[in-house]
Structure formats: C-alpha cells, structure tokens
Write a structure and sequence with these properties.
3 domains, Beta-galactosidase, Chain A, domain 5, Glycosyltransferase, alpha+beta, 710 residues, eight-stranded antiparallel sheet, disordered N terminus, five-stranded antiparallel sheet
Length: 710
C-alpha cells in the first residue's frame, strides 16, 4: 500500500503479524519482534496517526544483541521485554547482566540495565536507529524505502527526521549519549557505562512525531474515562477472561472526534477504531458494530459513534469518494492512499453498502437501551437521511434489492467480506458485482422496521407505516430469490451469500446467513434451517463459524474470507440463534469460540484459521498471519456474547426487559453456569442479572418498580 503521492518503494508481500508483539494506545502503536528489537523489518516501528515514526531501534551491548528470555504484556499499551548478557570467563553459567525494555505505545520506552553479577562491569551501550516515515499503506503492502537522513536535535540529546509526509524525533532523558547522525539513520552511544555489582543504569527514549501536514479534524486520543460501565462477571472462567481482555483492548482502541469540542457541551465523542495495526482509525461498519455490541454496558459509546459518523454523513454526489447524500462513511484516513493491485482510496471514502443501514439500526437499538430522548431526536434526521439512501439505492435496480456498484479503483466488494475473492459460487468461481448480499438485505430490513418503531413513538404513524410496507416488500423479495435447495444434507436448504444480476443466486454455503437471524427478515422455520446449516461440520470448524463452507471448491482455511473464522461473525450468529430460540446451535458455537479464546490468550484476533477441531487431540486454532490483534469488533464480541448468554432484549421506551438465557447446562462436558453479571446499564440504571445452570433467571436487580421484567 503506498500513500499518494509519496510512493517510493516497491510493493512486495503484506507483512505477517502472528509472531509480532504489538502494544497500542490509539492512534499510536508499536510493533516489533518478540525480542523487542526493531530492525527495520516490514512491520517494525513506532507509529502514530498512520505514520511510522521509527522503524529501527536496535540495542547492542558490547557489540552484541542481548539474548531474549521473556515478554510480559502488562497492559494493551505496555509490554516489557527482558533479555540477558552472558560473558566468557564468568564463574558460573548464570547471566550477570539483565536488560529490560519497558515499551509504551505513544511514548517510547525505558531501557534498564542491571548488573546482578559479583563484580563491577564497564559496558558499551549503543542504539542503532533509523526510519523511512512510511505511511501505514506502504507498510501494509510491504513497500520498502530507503531510510531518511537523520539530524542531531538542537540540544544534542537525540535525533530527528523530516520528509514531505511527516516528521519524527527521538530524544533521551537520562545520561546524555554520543549522537551520530547520517544519511541512513543514526546512533545513540554510551561508550563507557560502569556498573558496580548490584547497580542499575537507566535511560528513557521519547519518540514523537506526526504526519505532515496534520490532517484537520482527524481522530485523536481520548482524555476522559471509558464511556461504559466495567461489569463484574462471575461464572465460567473462559467468559470472565474474555470479557476482561476485550474491555482492556477496547480502551486501547478508543478514539475521539475532535470536532465534537465545538459542541456546547464540550464533550468527547468516543468511538472504537477498527483494529491495530492496519485499521487504527474510524471505519463506519466496524465502529458501528463495536458500539452495538457494547450497548449492554451503556449507550454513551453508541452516542459518540453516531455523532462522529453523522458529522461526516454524505452530502453530495462524488464519484471519487463514492459519496452520496445520506450515505455513511466507510473509512477515514489522514491522506489519500494506494493499496496496491489498483486500489486507490480517498482519505474520506464512502464505498460501503452496509454502514448506512447499520447506522440506522445502531440508533434504534441505542434508543431501546435507553439513549436519552434529546439525543435520539437530534440524531433522528441523520438516520432518516440514511434510510432515504438505503431506499434510493434499492430503487436503483428493478428487483428492489440493496446492491453495490463500485467505481473503478475502489473496493470491489463493499460489505464486511470485502476482499477481491470474497464472493465465490459452489464451483469456486469469483462472482463480481453488482451484487445483493444476503446479510445486507437483512440489515436494510432491520433498519426500516426499527426506524418505523422509532417514528411511531414520535407520533409519526404515516412515516412508520410507509417504512413497514417497504420492509415487507423487501422481505417477500428476499424469500423469493435467496433460498437454495441443498439435497443430501441434514439441512435441505440454505440462503445464498448473494444474488447477482437477474437475481441469480450465488451457490455455496457461507457464514453470511448467520447474520440474518437477528434481523427479522426470515421467519421461525427459516431460522431453524439456517441454524442446522451453521452447526454442520462444513461451516462449524469446532472453533467458530467458517466464512465459507469446507465442502465446496475454493475453501481455504487461511483465506481472508474464503474459509477462515471471524470472531465477530460467529458471535453475531450466536446472538441471532439466542434471539430466535435456536439454543442448541448457539451453545455449540459458543463453546467452540470460548475454547478458541483460551488458545489466543483471550485476545481474540480479527480472524483465524478454519481448520477443524479434532476431539481429544493437541490441535489448536491457527492465527491468520496478517490479522489485526487487537481488533475492535472482535474485542467487543465478548460483551455481545455475554448478552446472548443472558438473553437480554430491552425496550426502554416501554420500560420492559426480556431475559431469556441460554440453558447453560447444555454446555459439554461439564456445563457452564451459574452466571451472574453486575454492571449492566439500561436507561441510566445499573442492573445485575443472575441465572442458574439450567438457564433459570434467579434475579434481576436495579430497575425501578415500574419496569416489567419478563
């Protein structure tokens, strides 16, 4: 990926991340090998605002690299690397010099050297440093560029770099180094560090910088506390750890919209960046899903996400941006970018068919969770314009389905499965747009019916009836063209991933149909058929839901959208299964996902391998080697899973809460429950829910007496 107009490198292969150590505090992060050294390798670096500030930070002690012995992830933004130095002639084989590098995203790192040997030592310490100030687009596509010339800082306490695209500075707090600069980088050297037995030597390296020019109104790091309640979860250890890790990662991925500072309240509008390292910015679809999944812990994140997107809602017809009135932004970057393989995107890009209906549904669901009426009313015009775009887009084709028509050089596929080979038929043939994806029709239906309910609550019955009539027409068209007969299976039919021109369904089971279950576009019997397919061995890997059936040509367990498992996709299906009463299928997928979480240390990646789980074996799920981790909707999926297990369905406008838990005793081999959660948030009330192993609701506490709990 090469940012226009700065392309100087030669595209290569996307860097692999499965063995890279990342610490993140959005919009900054740092990435290195497991020994902590930055050697200028493809993904190495300290980054901020999509710009690599330093890509080489290599420590030498006595002209040797220390030997790594361990890593400690102290927090999402902080990691400690420990290594040792050993010397010939020591009395024992024990290390006598311990080296610690405490790295913090957005700041730099602290280097501490301890002499734990019995005699004094004089060490030569040197740090080799360099950068190319590459944009994240260049880094992602594997472009390599020559290092930039380094310059000694005015105070001679470090080095600085400049280019047309950015600037960076590395300064030292502590013993002053000998600084060497040059055309390919620079060095910081302490040629004679004397350490008595038991003594410690320490320096702090501060790394700072920004793109140039700085993009106006670009998201920044938050100053305030997290906009959600921190729940107390007691029960299954895997679930407890998944929620704990997920909330920590979400805090690290949190950004705020600086344009909200002009609002009278002076508030921070929070949203969740899509993922680190490639998508550490506002993504309409991803940020909306993360906010939806977090609604059980409060509506403030949803409010901030809605306003951040509302301010950037499409206003004009713009072919380059794929902007249109009412359309919701897909992606925000500091600058235009070239992503390789002919993909060229503007900094404000609207090429998404699903972000717009999802925006409407986020507002209606936030309303049901108790978003304050003044906020709902203020956001309602934006949701109406978004709904107008959805209907207008459906009217573009005679079949009345919501399709995408990408421009040349934009994203080929414009839903969450957006890779070039994301849509294949049962023969493994790539199917090109214009396409109407099945889950997108569900999103549109859910947006229309939710908006109808909201309008009716505002005494706008005519508009509500119009939307319900339109949604019913979409539901009927969907039922006519999306179902495919599948003889010889336990489930005799399934929903096509998409229909092409002429409403020809694209054959081959895929996970997309799982996202229809909670939308209302399919009936009860249809949900049962979908559930049966989701738990078949071809789609259920045992670790989660495969994006493409393993029984058809073109399946690849390590394909981005052609067979891998996506955390959020699996959890959305689990939520739908829970809501529609398909509890056994929900239990099967939940158990597999939680078992996968154990193997990933509960930090769920964006996606992972779709190879089958083999009972009573040592086989573990494989990381997708270039996946973001942490990733926004994967982290938020932990809270969505918690809500699905509890079976929460609120309606704050009617002061009603349904609690229909999954039967926890159906988890195998030893069951799951009981489960209790304190710190859920509904219409301004902190509530707690406790359920038994058999799924019986034992207590719901914290709601006023005028609320009805079913």
């Amino acid at each position: 990926m090469s940012e226009s107009p700065e392309s100087t490198g030669t595209p290569s292969l996307q860097p692999l991340l499965h063995d890279v150590v990342i610490c993140v505090s959005a919009p900054a992060f740092a990435a290195s090998a497991r020994d902590g050294q930055l050697r200028g390798l493809p993904a190495d670096g300290f980054y901020d605002q999509d710009r690599r500030l330093v890509h080489t930070l290599c420590l030498l002690i006595d002209d040797r690299e220390p030997e790594p012995i361990g890593i400690q992830i102290l927090a999402p933004e902080t990691v400690r690397f420990t290594s040792v130095c050993r010397y010939h002639g020591d009395q024992t084989d024990d290390p006598t010099v311990i080296v610690e590098r405490l790295r913090t995203a957005g700041h730099g790192e602290t280097l501490t050297i301890r002499n734990v040997g019995p005699v004094a030592r004089t060490l030569q310490v040197e740090i080799i440093t360099a950068t190319d100030l590459a944009g994240i687009a260049d880094v992602k596509s594997g472009c390599s560029s020559r290092p930039l010339r380094s310059t000694t800082t005015p105070d001679a306490d470090g080095l600085s770099w400049r280019s047309r695209q950015g600037r960076a500075c590395l300064t030292v707090d502590g013993p002053r180094p000998d600084v060497g600069d040059g055309p390919d980088g620079g060095t910081l050297a302490w040629p004679s560090v004397r350490l008595a037995s038991g003594a410690t030597w320490q320096v702090r390296l501060h790394i700072s910088g920004r793109p140039s020019p700085e993009p106006a109104g670009h998201p920044r790091a938050p100053k305030g506390p997290v906009p959600w309640l921190e729940p107390v979860v007691n029960g299954n250890r895997r679930l407890v750890e998944l929620v704990r890790q997920g909330l920590g990662d979400l805090n690290a991925l949190r950004l705020v919209d600086p344009t909200a500072a002009t609002e009278p309240e002076g508030r921070e509008d929070n949203f969740i960046a899509a993922g680190c390292p490639w998508y550490l910015t506002l993504f309409g679809r991803d940020s909306i899903w993360a906010a939806r999944m977090m609604l059980p812990l409060g509506t403030e994140l949803a409010r901030g996400t809605l306003w951040t997107l509302a301010r950037r809602q499409g206003k004009v017809i713009d072919y380059w941006r794929e902007e249109a009135p009412g359309r919701i932004l897909h992606e925000l970057r500091p600058a235009d970018s070239r992503h390789g393989r002919g993909l060229h995107l503007p900094s404000h890009y609207y090429g998404s068919v699903d972000a717009t209906p999802l925006f409407v549904t986020l507002l209606t669901e936030a309303w049901r969770w108790g978003l304050a009426d003044p906020e709902v009313d203020a956001l309602l015009p934006y949701a109406e314009r978004a709904m107008d775009w959805v209907i207008d887009a459906c009217n573009r084709d005679s079949d009345g389905l919501l399709r995408y028509h990408p421009r040349r050089g934009g994203l080929l596929h414009q839903s969450w499965k957006d890779s070039v080979d994301a849509v294949q038929d049962a023969e493994g043939r790539h199917i090109s747009p214009p396409l109407a994806l099945c889950e997108v029709q569900g999103y549109a239906y859910q947006a229309a019916t939710g908006m109808a309910d909201l309008l009716e609550s505002r005494h706008r019955g005519k508009g509500a009836n119009t939307l319900r009539s339109w949604a019913e027409g979409l539901r009927k068209r969907f039922a006519e063209v999306f179902w495919i007969t599948d003889t010889g299976k336990s489930a005799t039919r399934y929903i096509a991933i998409a229909v092409g021109p002429g409403v020809e369904p694209v054959s081959g089971p895929a996970s997309n149909m799982g996202q229809l279950l909670g939308t209302g576009i399919v009936g009860h019997d249809d949900c049962s058929a979908i559930a049966a397919h989701l738990v078949n061995d071809d789609l259920n890997s045992g670790w989660g839901l495969r994006s493409r059936s393993a029984s058809v040509p073109g399946f690849n367990p390590l394909s981005y959208h052609g067979g891998s498992v996506w955390t959020h996709d699996t959890v959305i299906a689990i939520q739908g299964l829970s809501e529609t009463g398909c509890h056994d299928a929900a239990v099967v997928l939940t158990d597999g996902l939680l078992e996968a979480a154990v193997h990933f240390g509960y930090r769920m990646p964006e996606l992972y391998g779709g190879d089958a789980k083999i009972p009573n074996s040592s086989v573990v799920p494989l990381a997708y080697p270039a996946a973001c981790r942490p990733q926004g909707w994967s982290a938020a999926a932990s809270v969505a899973l918690l809500s699905a297990l509890l079976g929460l369905r609120p309606d704050a406008s009617a002061k009603r809460l349904q609690v229909r838990p999954l039967p926890l005793d159906r988890f195998r081999p030893v069951g799951f429950g009981p489960l209790s959660v304190d710190g859920l948030h509904l219409a301004g009330h902190r509530i707690s829910v406790r359920i038994s192993r058999t799924g019986v609701v034992e207590a719901v506490e914290g709601l006023p007496k005028d609320w009805q709990v079913e």
